[in-house]
Amino acid sequence: MTAMADQDSITRAADLLARASRVVAFTGAGVSAESGVPTFRGAGGLWEGHPVEQVATPEAFAADPLMVWRFYDQRRVNLAPRRPNPAHQVLAGWQERFASFVLATQNVDSLHEDAGSREVLHLHGSIWRVRCCRCQEEREDRTAPFPALPPRCPCGGLLRPAVVWFGEALPMDVLETAMVAAERCEVLLVVGTSAVVYPAAGLVEVAAGAGAAVIEVNPQASALAWLANVALRGPAGEMLPRLQEALAARTS
Ligand code: BV8
Ligand code: ZN
Q1: Distances in Å between the alpha carbon of 191 and those of 74, 102, 124, 148, 202?
Q2: Could you confirm whether 50 is annotated as catalytic?
Q3: Can you state the angle between helices 172-184 and 202-209, rounded to 10 degrees?
Q4: How far away, in angstroms, is 151 Cα from ligand 2 center?
């Protein structure tokens, strides 16, 4: 992508946002990449030689809770020092700029909240929350690393990460809120996702189907790039600040 071409895309994206009052941002692992968090499919998507799609499942946890907890404990240790990057910061700033701004993420990290985003819709749960398999109590727990794996609840039950595994239903209230916002928005930003995981990726189809303009921010074309009106083909940590700059120039 030449510099001119992507300045033209930035201008077109800014025009769309300048006219919008209802905006949805839908993010994936790519928005955290510049914070040093490996993406799923970028890192070869393997854990101890197993594809992530086979580790992040209830079956894997039932068969080998220790192996699955080694995967999550390692990710929590890696995540603990990570800080939001400019992409998270621009998105956090936009919740004040638009009459309605809804942020739905597939990510289980807390970098959007750390950047100041509020009411983040976590479609796939949070790696910083644990749930007891026996008493179902769920709470925030930032211990990294855990002194012993697998961690146990005070009731003696086995704790699991409060994330949505493959084959598990998403939290219906969160998904419903995100789908209603996608249906109503004028612009949907799709940031840093390969858009292959459903039902989350369905947000893009719902928004486009309801007539929203779709702006994709991703160095690569996602599986739903064909639905994008504008594509900002670069890292979100660079593209979103440039988009914010172009937007601010229109309303100053
Ligand atoms: C469900 C939490 C039904 C865990 C995740 C067979 C059996 C069962 C289900 C299925 C099946 N076949 C298909 C399905 C459906 C399945 C699915 O979609 N599978 C895919 C793989 C085909 N979905 C499910 O299982 C869902 N549940 O269907 O349940 C049901 C219904 C009712 C009742 C019971 C059951 C649950 C899916 C949720 C899985 N959990 N995460 C954890 O994190 O450990 S998904 C996981 O993938 C992460 O959340 C991740 O976010 C998500 C998507 O990945 P991406 O975020 O897009 O990351 P990726 O690496 O792929 O891409 C990164 C992108 O960033 C790239 O495009 C790259 O170019 C870009 N990028 C890189 N650098 C940058 C950048 N962009 C911008 N800037 C940069 N600097
Ligand atoms: Zn318990």
Answers
A1: 25, 13, 16, 36, 14
A2: no
A3: 30
A4: 11
In this prediction, residue 105 has a pLDDT band, given cuts at 50, 70 and 90, of very high
Q: How many CB atoms lie within 10 A of CB 153?
A: 18
**Ligand 1 atom having least distance to the Cα of 197:** 18
The C-alpha angle 168, 61, 83, rounded to 5 degrees, equals 80
Question: Distance, CA 160 to ligand 2 centroid (Å)?
Answer: 10
Query: What's the predicted TM-score (pTM) here?
Result: 0.96
C-alpha of 7 from chain center: 25
Q: With a cut of 80, say whether residue 3 has pLDDT above it.
A: no
Question: Tokens 């727990």 — which residue?
Answer: 141
Q: Is 86 in the pocket of ligand 1 (CB under 6 A)?
A: no
Mutate to test the pocket of ligand 1, among 35, 70, 197, 222 (most ligand atoms within 8 A of CB): 197
- Contacts (Cβ under 8 Å, ≥6 apart) of 224: 190, 195, 201, 204, 205, 214, 216
How far is the centre of ligand 1, averaged over its atoms, from the C-alpha of 117 (Å)? 22
Mapping DSSP to helix (H, G, I), strand (E, B) and coil, where does residue 173 land? Answer: helix
